[in-house]
Amino acid sequence: MIGNLIDVISSLTLIMQEETERLANRTGGRDLAELATVKVRLVGMLETAMARLEREQEHWADTIEEAVHARLLEALLALGEASAANAAVLERQIDLSVEMIGAISTEAKRIAGRSTTTYGARGDISSFDAPVPIAVNSEY
Asked: Which ranges in the chain belong to alpha helices (H)?
């Protein structure tokens, strides 16, 4: 059972490393969505395996052999490093997407010229930028 847990951890690490590499090198494509789906599935499998171990053998971590413990620790450390790198690349990707959509929205407002200025009853002036509808293609 612990061997299965180590296999799932190793598979998740490899998927995260591949996703990180593709995002960092900007070699995306449709298969990025597939990688994300596999990653979610592997996380679910990992959670299930951990819950099963805790349920069936409450103190399983204290009873495993030294060699198995070393393999598990190595796999967990690799997963932690892959997760940190993956999170950093994904955060940067999200920031870039937000900046790009903001720039597109600003340019659309400028081109559309849909701002209005209103004179108030007390002589004050207020401006209002009407939202410009923007459609983004959801495919890569």
From this structure: 2-24, 31-56, 60-63, 66-112
What would the two tokens of residue 67 be? Answer: 């060699």
Query: pTM of the prediction?
Result: 0.72
| The token pair that represents 101 in the structure block | 């959509």
Distance of CA 67 to the CA centre of its chain: 33
Rg (the chain; Cα; Å): 25
The pLDDT tens digits of the residues spanning 21-38 come to 998 887 767 788 899 999
CA distances from 78 to 65, 72, 120 (A): 20, 10, 63
Q: Are 89 and 23 in contact (CB under 8 A)?
A: yes
Q: Could you tell me if 61 and 54 are in contact, meaning their C-beta atoms sit under 8 angstroms apart?
A: no
